[in-house]
Amino acid sequence: MFTTTGSRGLYKAPLCKGLLLVLNGLTVMLTLLPQYQHMFEYNLQAISQHHQLWRLLCGRIVCLDIKDSFCSSLLIYNFRIFERRFGTRKFASFLLCTWFLSAVMDFLLAQAFEFLFDYAVEELPAGMLAPVFSLFVPFYNAIPRMPVTQIFGQIHITNKSLVYIVGLQLLTSSPFMWLLALSGLISGALYHCNFLKIQKLVFVPIWVSRLGRCTLEPIFSSSQPVSETPIGMGATLDIQRQQRMDMLDQQLLFAQYNEARRNARLQPQAGLLQWTRLFPSLRRRGQNHPTAQPQPQPQGQAHASTQPPLLDNSPASEEQVARLVEMGFSRIDALEALRASNNDINIATNFLLQH
Q1: CA 124-130-131 angle, 5° bins
Q2: Which of 69, 100, 132, 253 has the fewest CB atoms within 10 Å around its CB?
């Protein structure tokens, strides 16, 4: 469904995996035990008037609505690319900072709404919704937009459209969900701009990161997708490998974006939907180039200029296979994708990300 972040599961995303399992498990448990749901309601009046500060934690962690839990889980799963790119500690710091900022923004926006419209907002949807909406800020800025198809020749469908549709579905699930969405977007923008050096003020300490790495990461970590694991790799090589993966990931995403822009200008298609771009055939992409017209040659040079055609099953370059393996794909999948794409690294990467 989501083609932006690939299909390698939750590898190198233990925090996202933990959030998905724990939060959804608590949602299911509260659904089966409705007598305890009142303890997890996000009631602003109870917090401000009765000083029930514990509701800030309980009411802003677990979703009480199955639909909200499902949509937020889809978004967290899609946004796992940020944990892979920046590391678990930085990703956790982003969620922690936006969680605190959005808690303040919730009360400020509720007071502003009451002042403007003379209507008191007593309760908001429960769950970690505002930090999820804040992730749309780096998603909008860091992930390139790659055209996929067009509807009626005017409406462009990109690789990010379905993510925005899920966010819109979550936005319309409750009457005051827009307040949490606005709070999350403002919090994400403040963190992204490093307003008042907020990134240095609110972050996950190193000792907490090390403690979680020793206790929680072995529980929520996913197995490495590659078939062979390097032996004897030290910490320095591991960091360098992670940096190369992040750099290749960003470069290839922008390369796909530029290639899609060129193809959109050079190959316009008529009709309501451009199905060949929506469902591209990978094994035929290398054969879509226009055939060159034969040029007349002298008879003496006819046999000398004849060359055997290139074969689609030419052996894959070990350098290209190593680049795909460094990005997290298995060696078997990398060889198959390169063989099918005639050793085109961009097409092979696009195929692996979409499948």
Answers
A1: 150
A2: 100
The one-letter amino acid code at 112 reads A
β-pairing verdict for 147-151 and 123-124: unpaired
Closest among 140, 121, 141, 135 to 184, alpha carbons compared: 135
Predicted pLDDT at 263: 62
In angstroms, the Cα distances linking 255 to 318, 339, 355 are 21, 20, 18
| C-alpha to C-alpha distances, 310 to 95, 238, 295, nearest whole angstrom | 51, 38, 19
Token digits for 16? 């996202």
Is the Cβ–Cβ distance between 42 and 48 less than 8 Å? no
Q: What's the pLDDT at 245?
A: 60
Q: Would you give the DSSP letter of residue 159?
A: T
What Cα–Cα distance (Å) separates residue 195 from each residue in 87, 101, 121, 188, 199? 22, 11, 28, 10, 8
CA distance 50 to 48: 6
Alpha carbons 178 and 170: distance in angstroms, whole number: 9
Q: pTM score, two decimals?
A: 0.65
Check residue 344 and give its pLDDT. Answer: 76
Identify the bridge partners of residue 339 per DSSP, sorted by sequence position.
none
Give the model's pLDDT for residue 282.
42
In contact, 244 and 326? CB cutoff 8 Å = yes
**Cβ pair 129, 72 in contact under 8 A:** yes
The residue ranges of the chain whose pLDDT is under 70 are 1-8, 153, 224-315, 354-355
pLDDT of residue 315: 67
Helix (H, G, I), strand (E, B) or coil at 172: coil
List strand residue ranges (DSSP E) for the chain, in order: 42-43, 123-124, 147-151, 155-158
Q: Which helix (H) or strand (E) holds 162?
A: helix 161-171
